[in-house]
Amino acid sequence: KNVESKETTHKHDVRSEVFKPCVEDKDLAFCLNEGECSIIETVAGVHRHCRCKEGYHGLRCDQFVPKTDAILSNPSMSFVSFLPHC
């Protein structure tokens, strides 16, 4: 298994965070838009984390943000096309 470990030191505590790939169906379905799911085990408990594909962000990769150059090259995506024509 590929496990990525990250050590974090705070002023008053030391904790270890371990990222493990999601394997259960409910966890695999957590990330949207082909985001990569990881389980993070901390002293506070187990949490799910998504690594989003380009153009997506948010806790579950549920928010799309088009690249600026894509908007400029495709006027139909631009806000200008939504303005009323006089």
Automatic annotation (TrEMBL):
One of its GO terms (biological process) is intracellular signal transduction. GO terms for molecular function: chemorepellent activity; growth factor activity. It comes from the Eukaryota. Residues 18-62 form the EGF-like domain. It is a single-pass type I membrane protein. Keywords: Cell membrane, Disulfide bond, EGF-like domain, Growth factor, Membrane, Secreted, Transmembrane, Transmembrane helix. GO terms for cellular component: extracellular space; plasma membrane. Disulfide bonds join 52-61. Belongs to the neuregulin family. This is EGF-like domain-containing protein. It comes from Gouania willdenowi (Blunt-snouted clingfish).
